[in-house]
Design a protein that fits this description.
This protein is of the alpha/beta class and 350 residues long. The protein contains 15 helices and 16 strands. β3 and β4 form a beta hairpin.
Length: 350
């Protein structure tokens, strides 16, 4: 089984590097300066166990890869890049299959935030798997990925999409569990991904405002999550409970301090910090907005977070540069002046 990591950034680099360490066959796919760094110097993976450099095969796209039966495609790009990646890989012929394409015969794992990529993939691939990714990692420098958690690097629930378990999922999980991951095979992986979606609703908040004004941020985040739960209820969407998530994680993926690598922000913060010009908020907060509009549930907090994060990405504004009070004032609905003031004061004193 060869794992082809499509998008070897934070999550993809951590999964690919850890799989390689445990003896799995891995090929990384990356673009631009990151591709050049991986090609010329290898993947530098920083973990609590030390820093290692992995000289792995790397490609810029499917045209440079001869696909073969037994390959597993692991999609780790941000959701806004999914369609381009899926369209590029699905029609590629797989060697030794009498002309079958990747979309027809190869399994594709969506190891991404949000819940949209699985639907996009199923239009193009007949064998789609969802993966709920609890893997705090950072990618800010070409060729370097920091995976700072211990004792495990991540918790990766996996299952067939839209539901079910099979031998392929168990084989993928087995490879991951030889690396420092826990990879439960579950029949209801989207329940886990919808729960993770709620946890990701604060990504935009951290990306645009940083960490200032913790109490005020918590109130706004609570409102965003409450909108998400209301939208789920109206749509009949099930998500695993907070208690079930806490029990599954325990203290298995606790962030550790790494000298020379201070802990940064989440995936959306990293996108702004790298100046990519895009951000995944349309498929996080924007997913809640979509569900709410479809079922008559107001979602003003998520709509504003989606709008502001999109502006930051398009204008390439620095991550964390908006005072919290400015954001709070833009959110429709009641936000107390005390909350706005406390957020601004905290921001000014930071």
């Amino acid at each position: 089984m060869r794992h082809i990591i499509i998008g070897a950034g934070a999550v993809g680099g951590a999964i690919g590097g850890r799989l390689a360490e445990s003896g799995s066959d891995v090929l990384l796919v990356a673009r631009g300066a990151h591709y050049e760094a991986l090609r010329d110097h290898g993947l530098r993976l920083v973990t609590p166990q030390g820093t290692r450099t992995h000289r792995l095969p790397v490609a810029e796209g499917p045209e440079a890869v001869e696909l073969r039966a037994g390959d597993v495609l692991v999609l780790t790009v941000k959701t806004q890049d999914s369609i381009a990646a899926l369209d590029a890989w699905a029609p590629r012929e797989v060697a030794g299959t009498d002309g079958a394409t990747a979309g027809e015969v190869l399994p594709l794992v969506c190891a991404q935030n949000g819940v949209e990529s699985e639907r996009l993939a199923l239009r193009r691939f007949s064998r789609v798997y969802g993966m709920c990714v609890w893997l705090p990692a950072h990618f800010l420098e070409p060729g370097v990925v920091v995976a700072a958690c211990a004792p495990l690097s991540g918790l990766l629930h996996i299952g067939r999409y839209p539901a079910g378990m099979d031998e392929t999922a168990r084989n993928i999980a087995g490879a991951l569990e030889k690396a420092p991951f826990e990879a439960p095979v579950v029949p209801d992986v989207m329940r886990w991904k919808y729960a993770k979606l709620l946890a990701n609703l604060g990504n935009a908040l951290g990306a645009v405002c940083g960490t200032a004004g913790a109490d005020a941020r918590a109130e706004l985040l609570d409102r965003a999550v409450a909108e998400g739960r209301a939208a789920f209820a109206a749509a009949g969407i099930e998500a695993v409970s907070d208690e079930e998530q806490r029990e599954a994680r325990g203290h298995k993926v606790d962030p550790q301090p790494l000298e020379g690598h201070p802990r940064g922000g989440g995936s959306s913060w990293q996108s702004l910090s790298r100046g990519t010009g895009t951000i995944e908020t349309d498929y996080l907060n924007g997913e809640i907005v979509l569900i709410g509009r479809a079922h008559g549930v107001p979602t003003p907090v998520n709509a504003e977070l989606q709008r502001v994060a999109g502006e930051f990405a398009r204008d390439r504004r620095p991550a964390g540069s908006m005072p919290f009070g400015e954001l709070a004032a833009r959110v429709r609905g009641p936000v107390s002046q005390a909350v706005i003031a406390s957020g601004s004061a905290a921001r000014d004193s930071s």
